[in-house]
Write a structure and sequence with these properties.
Four copies of one chain form a homotetramer.
Chain A: H1 2-12, E1 20-21, H2 26-29, E2 37-42, E3 47-51, E4 57-58, H3 63-75, H4 96-100, H5 111-122, H6 127-142, E5 148-149, H7 151-160, H8 162-173, H9 181-192, E6 194-196, H10 198-204, H11 220-233, H12 239-246, E7 250-252, E8 257-262, E9 266-271, E10 274-275, H13 282-295
Antiparallel strand pairs in A: 1-10, 2-3, 2-9, 4-6, 5-6, 7-8, 8-9
Helix pairs in contact in A: 1-13, 3-5, 5-8, 5-9, 6-9, 6-10, 7-9, 8-9, 11-12
Family (chains A, B, C, D): Belongs to the glutaminase family.
GO molecular function, one term (chains A, B, C, D): glutaminase activity
Pfam families (chains A, B, C, D): Glutaminase
């Protein structure tokens, strides 16, 4: 596995065609696009890495996986009254379907649905408490108490995220946001600003693998269902393409991170800040595709 | 397995809440909604059935799986220049995205994309030749030379399918239909009118399972990719829901049939003519959900 | 004319089918739907009224006419780089086209476009100054210094207008809002909360009529162009219907007021709080239709 | 007036920026973009012309005005159950709103609505009879029995109009087309292929002017209402812009013709084959704008 990751790193790490770094959050625009890291945490307890696997990055929308687990933990299937489970076929911050569907976002992985999930685990707590809960979940999954939120990135996002505020007020206009908009936006922006390196993220993803030594933070049924959502909706309007190429459930973030996993086998984290046309890490997607081709880990094998 | 199928049949076969039979093809509207059949063909060569597993039904859009295999066999990845691989988030016969995306259908399992797939395997052949090829593929997959097309259903569809003609002319207006519209419509309507029973359909689906004794009609890579497409797009705007509940790749048809499969394990066919809100078999979906829960066959387990 | 208005009042004033009062601004929901007032200010300087023509009401979106005049006065045709001049075919607070058209609202009479107009006349002034300017314009047009803003209605709107905030943040995300969102929302909500009675509103509308004694607040060309915009876009997705039935340029508000005018002849104000399916005053529309039928004032006569 | 038309011809006739000739009907693509003609038929019975006012061109969608008059003559207001009266905000051959609005086109001047109008005047007649009726209407309006259909243009359109067939089948799928699709398409394509020169078209448009010597083919109320529809919907998604600039009701065709009129004053026909971004004659629009500026004929003056 270590050799394989090194091969992937060699094949892709220096690729000239790396996509474009997200620019709409000022702090993210500063990230060096030359980074490339990958880490695999296998079900037998080992961790393999290559490239910049120890450099911290902003997990951004990968955090939606943890937020969804938390929201489901809090209200269970009642969440599905407020958010759907279907791919939207549209970009991550689209308002189009929201209007046609009375404020029920298509799924919890587009921004609108993620705001509902955040609003759900936030409940009547303070943002500080809610974010504390989120960090405890992630730290417990990764078995690493150093994982933290980058306050500068969070502040940068709070200061500039007009589109998310538009989504939040829009949800609120349909009564589908219960806490105050600014509280939800603040919590959400901090959630997105969680920082990890590939090693930590791969470890944090182990709660989605089925295996004897893996952290048991959610039930088996919930794990399978979250996997299905990640497969069909985890990469926005590039979800079908990711499933086609990688054959694994995964979730991307505009920071260039992707968390994917092979049920019963391994959790995989890649990071390369350049994004493809759908807003998913370009080299990250290619790396997982290569990894799956060599390991045969596709869930459809 | 036989016991499990009997249990499922007992649990669901007499359900009062069966959804509604499709009415837009007159011949389909005549079908008795009381039918319920299920068949499972396992990788070790056995077939198990329960209920009306030997009654013929119209496979309708399940045929898109065979058509896609044929189209890919003919032109390979060039097909993806004419059709996408993303869930559309819209109903099976929607024209909405087609307009915004210059005549490139979102995926080969919505009607617009299926018409492109049909146009592809039709090529410059006559409809008779092309349909002969399709039947040979299906018969070979099922190892059953009695599988045939119901000409009355096909004629009923040809006579009434204004919406598909609208889609076809629309594709033609973008230059994304190469054969004459009426030829494509005729071929497509006959393809949809293939008749099988659950036993035959389960057998025909074995080419999608990976296993020593299974028919090898397509490459492993293509098999995995088709599975991904079935998972993300196989149930129209209910694809996410099917993935969430069943955790298997599958393809439904408005005749009430569903073909699903567990990679490396089994091919599954169910039939119950009543449809849910997305146009997928209501009891069929529930049956597969039950089956997967008991067998643990979810690809995400 | 007085007789005609009395006839219209008699015919419609007690109508049982009055539409529904807008409920989304709490203060507006309290208004008695039984009100019905009408006033006509003719080019020869006379004013005729019937019904509750002296009861104050919230002009709401009728204010967009004055705001547009002010915005054009400030930046001239440069406004058309930030907002279009086409009917949207969608409801007054839709976000749909905004997304497809990169944050350029279709016209200045839907809410999104009106926010851009408000942002334009606001410029770098304080909301207080900008609203002072707006009031001066309206008072000067109506020759009535008592016209004022209802602060309770404004506060009610500021407290609840999630949808407008969504629009504003959305515009801001495209860089098409220059002042701070909350400043624009505050100014806009106060602008909508201008109170007038029918008599005052008919007088205020005289600047749109061409005539020797009429107030000359804008050039003739601008007057004609604003009339065209009111004709094609003044009643949201009911604009075509209003033009078809009334044959006059007009602008409605969800408070139940309509300002219409017959070029060279008269300015007309009606008020009836119940709204039709498009969010325009139901009896108000009928009253103008009747008035035009009897007077022959259609611009198409 | 003759001088004014000559000035307009001089100002615009040689303009280098003429827009693009429509190419989607092969016969139309052959037309020389250098043509420019204008004709004005005044209410006192005179006709003035300049430029290529005697060269025949294909009136295309301008024919929708005559078709609408005919359809209303046949079924009256019952037409409005099958077609709306609102601007669509979308291009002339869009299918988008049709899907959302259950097969009721937004207005009779977009292609979908025009197909319904054609289907209405066609009724149970043969296309030959129906087209005979249409020609009699136009000839009677223009007082010119030489007006005819160009069969080559019609045949070219029948052979290539996939998009209109898509619209027609789509309408049929909603039950909003009563005759056979091919019969409607044939009739519609011939209707669009009516040929006139500017002089004839200006004369044919006189039935829309109110005046003692003008042909009385429809009632005054219907005339006013058709004018309103032309004002709000006559130039597709450029209708608002035309109203803003010209201030007159008008209808354009992709052949480069525009018929506009000043109620009580004159009927105006212009022809210049190059189209602007909305598919309306570029120089034609500019010519009418100039004419109205000089004559003060805006309905909003």
């Amino acid at each position: 596995m270590k050799d394989l990751l090194d091969q992937i790193h060699t094949a892709l790490g220096g690729s000239p065609d790396r996509g474009n770094v997200a620019t709409y959050i000022p702090e993210l625009a500063k990230v060096d696009p030359g980074h490339f890291g990958i880490a695999v945490a296998t079900v037998d307890g080992q961790v393999f890495t290559a490239g910049h696997a120890d450099v911290l990055f902003s997990i951004q929308s990968v955090s939606k996986v943890f937020a969804l687990a938390l929201a489901l933990g809090k209200v269970g299937d009642a969440l599905w009254k407020r958010v759907g489970r279907e791919p939207s076929g549209l970009s991550f911050n689209s308002l189009l379907l929201l209007e046609r569907e009375n404020g029920i976002p298509r799924n919890p992985f587009i921004n609108a649905g993620a705001l509902v999930a955040t609003d759900t685990y936030l409940g009547e707590s303070s943002p500080r408490e809610a974010l504390g809960q989120l960090l405890r979940f992630i730290r417990s999954a990764a078995d690493d108490d150093t994982i933290h939120i980058n306050d500068e990135v969070a502040a940068s996002e709070v200061a500039t995220c007009h589109r998310n505020r538009a989504l939040a007020h829009y949800l609120a206009s349909f009564g589908n946001l219960h806490a105050e908009v600014e509280k939800v936006i603040g919590t959400y922006s901090h959630q997105c600003a969680v920082e990890m390196n590939c090693r930590q993220l791969a470890l944090a993803g182990r709660f989605l693998i089925n295996g004897p030594g893996m952290p048991r933070l959610i039930s088996s049924e919930r794990r399978r269902r979250m996997a299905a959502l990640m497969m069909t909706c985890g990469h926005y309007d590039g979800s079908g393409d990711f499933a086609f190429r990688a054959g694994l459930p995964g979730k991307s973030g505009v920071g260039g991170g992707i968390l994917a996993f092979a049920p019963g086998r391994a959790s995989i984290a890649v990071w390369s800040p350049g994004l493809n046309e759908y807003g998913n890490s370009k080299l990250g997607t290619e790396a997982i595709e290569l990894l799956v081709r060599e390991t045969g880990w596709s869930v459809f094998a």
